[in-house]
User: Fold XK-related protein from Drosophila willistoni.
Amino acid sequence: MKDTGNHREEIGPSPNMGIAEMVEITSCNIFFTGCAAIMRLISIVVNWYLVFEYWKSESYAYSAWTLASILIPMVITSIIYSHIVSTDQTGHGRILYRGTMSDIVLSYLFRDGYTLNYALNYTQAKKQDNKEGEIRYYQKYVKEECNVGFIRLFDSFLETAPQKILQLVIVLRFIKTLTYFRAFTFVIYFLSIAWCLVAYNRSNRLVQLDKYDIGTNGLIVQFFFLLCLTVSRTLCIAYVASIYPLATLAMCLCHILVCGSIVFLVDAPKLANSVFMNYLCCITFGVVYLFIFTPVKDAPTKYKYIYYLSFCLVQNITACILFIPLYISIAILGLYVIGIILMIFYYLMCHPGITSTLY
Assistant:
C-alpha cells in the first residue's frame, strides 16, 4: 500500500487488467518468494526459542524484553492489517475471500505462503494457456504481495530489529554469549530484513502500470546495498546501546517521532481513513527510518535520499569517533559507504525505466 498523490491507492491491480498490462511472474520471483516464506517460519521459531532460552538461563529481563518485542509489534501490525482488510471491502470488492481474523493469524504464521500459492497457480494457468485463470491469479498475487509487503515492512523493523539490537548488545557486553545459534539468528535477520525492503519496493512498482518491474540484476544489487546499509546502522546503534542503553533508547525514540511527524506533515500520505491510524502508520515509518529510507508516496526521491543518507552518515561518524573502537568503526563506516556506492550504481545502471524521470 502506498500513497500515489491526493488519495490512497487501492491495493492491487484493476480487475479489468488485461494480459498486456501484466508483469510476468518469473521462476526467480517464485524462488525468492519461497525463500521468504521459509525464512519467515524460521524467524518465528527462532524468536520464540530465544524467549525460552533466556528464561531457562534465568535471564528474566532479557526474556521479558524479547517477549515484548514480539507481542507489541504483533498487536500493532495486526491492527494495521485488520484495517487494510476491512477497508478493502470497498471499491471493486475483495480478491481475498478469507475472514479478517483468519487473515491476521495466517499472515503472522505464513506471511508469504498465499503469495507463493498464487504465483504457482498463475504459472500453472499460463502453461495451460488459461487466460482467465492467469489474470485471476495474477490479480490475487499482486494484491496479496502489496498487502503483505506493507505489513512485512513494519513487522521486520518493529519486531525483528529491536530483538537483534538487544541480542547484539548482550553479545557486545558478554562476548562468551555468542553461540553458533545466535550467530545464525543474526544472519537470518540481516538477510530477511534486506529482502523485506526489496519485496516492498517491488510490490509498490507492480501496482503502478506506468512503471516497469525491477529486473533480476536490479533486485540483486538493491538487496546488497540495503543489506550493507541496515547492517551498518544496526551495528552502530547496538554498540552505543551496549554502553548507554537508556540514552540510546531516548535518542532512537526522538529520531522515530521526528521522522514520523515529518512524514505525516510534509509527505501527508493517505495510508488510512482515520487521522489516528494515518499517524500510527507514519510513526512506524519513523522506526524504519532508524535504519533505512524508503519512500512513503510516489514522488521524486533523489534529494530525500541525499539528505537522509548524509544525516545518517554524520550520525554514524559521530558515534564512531566518540564511542566505538577503531576496528568496529571501520566496519560500520565501510559498510555504509559501500551501501551508498551500490545504491548509486543501482540508480545509474540497474534501475528500470519509468515514464517520467529516473528518480
User: Anything to note?
Assistant: Residues 4-12, 89-98, 354-359 have pLDDT under 50 and may be disordered. The first helix runs from residue 27 to 56.
